[in-house]
Design a protein that fits this description.
The structure is a homodimer.
Chain A (H helix, E strand, L loop, with lengths): L24 E12 L4 E5 L1 E2 L9 E2 L2 E3 L6 H13 L6 E10 L10 E10 L9 E3 L10 H15 L4 H8 L2 E3 H12 L5 H9 L4 E7 L11 E5 L2
Parallel strand pairs in A: 1-7
Antiparallel strand pairs in A: 1-2, 1-5, 2-8, 3-4, 6-7, 9-11, 10-11
The first copy, chain A, binds a DNA duplex (27 and 27 nucleotides) through α5.
InterPro entries (chains A, B): NUDIX_hydrolase-like_dom_sf (IPR015797)
GO molecular function (chains A, B): hydrolase activity
Protein name (chains A, B): NUDIX hydrolase
Chain lengths: ~230, ~230
Amino acid sequence: MLSVEAEPVGARPGQVEPGHIESSLVSVDVLALRFDAGSGAVLLGVSRRELEPFLGRDALPGVLLGRGERLREAAVRAVAGKLGVPEGAVRATGQLATFDEPSRDPRGPTLSIALWATLDPARSDGPRWAPLSAVPPLAFDHDRIVADCRALLGERLWRDPVFTAGLLGPEFTTAQALDATEALTGDRPYPANLGRLMDRVPGLRRTEQHAAARAKGGRPPLVWRWEG
Amino acid sequence: MLSVEAEPVGARPGQVEPGHIESSLVSVDVLALRFDAGSGAVLLGVSRRELEPFLGRDALPGVLLGRGERLREAAVRAVAGKLGVPEGAVRATGQLATFDEPSRDPRGPTLSIALWATLDPARSDGPRWAPLSAVPPLAFDHDRIVADCRALLGERLWRDPVFTAGLLGPEFTTAQALDATEALTGDRPYPANLGRLMDRVPGLRRTEQHAAARAKGGRPPLVWRWEG
DNA sequence: CTAATAGTGTCTTTCAGACATTATTAT
DNA sequence: ATAATAATGTCTGAAAGACACTATTAG
């Protein structure tokens, strides 16, 4: 299974000889998500490329995985280096999928492991954030990565408390929950139905508090909070 | 917590200097599944290691990913080289999760990308197959990989027609469907309930045919078939 | 008051879970 | 007939979907 083993000899492309390791490079590309409570938008962090290829184009923040480095370390490094987000602002990370098209990077075959990262919006302001529902064209195959992974993120919301709490923060209103759900799934649920769904999320509690009313008037929304 | 699940971000050791690329090796480890229609067992292909480390122990079939090689190619190569299964016997493959514990291989940091592969049982006989419900202790962290991925396989059955058709073959009986579901999820559904679930699987059709009766007598089961 | 926003009650449909009952076969 | 195996009917409860109605705020 590893390089030091002899593979059965036969003319197969991609064959690895013992001692002579020539592997694809591994990059970690991050869907860095930042929930703006004010507008209710889920923002995706993008970075302008300062090198060829795709110089000047937007791209997902990504780094090459270092030897012995863990995926989430690399994701934090990417978010810090490419978006300027301090490491402490990364609330949680997790795997999405791996993209292995050999021609996805013109410099040579590169594996891309896509991770999500949820950020604390108070500590991750910066220049380049795009609403997840209107991401500009990106470099490499990142348009495809975003499209594929957006569906995965939509499935994860409310099912994975670590992701959901990381995205929405320690407390949030029903209105914000509706906005975030719409941003990730493309579909806005009915308030009553989302409320029942949230009642069943482990660790999430409906409080008696109401948030401050909005500028335009209207009943103030309920506050939800994670316990533990 | 499962490695494939979300992780909160904590303290991180180790950094990588840019410009000096020294990446972890990438191995592709395969959960090669073979459904034995006779016994109703889902069998996992394991290979005995012929080199250190873990000499003589069983392990998942795996290979190092070659430069520019696709994950699917590597999975087919692993199954062919380590299990002796001809390439044409691989019906389908897909991603499961990535395991990035740096110490998972004593020879050095190695990323493991776990894939599933479904095999044609008629063309993939061989020496070492273990029921998925009774896998022997494996080398490296493969026990953990199997445990984590078994849950993912259970979720995929009936939801992913490519996986399900690859596992069960072009046609199968209700009894076999019950057995396969029990093997992957650990839970045997009621026949009526599984029948209704299968009625909703796209591309799967309940036929009017009955399979040959079993040796012990009893009503012959219905045959299900994929269309297209 | 009205407009805007949000929460609640409830009906419907879908789906999973759990049987009891009926059907078909070998012996 | 009896045992073995499988299919079917039906009841229950959980969950999603859809909507009408009520509640609370700013102006």
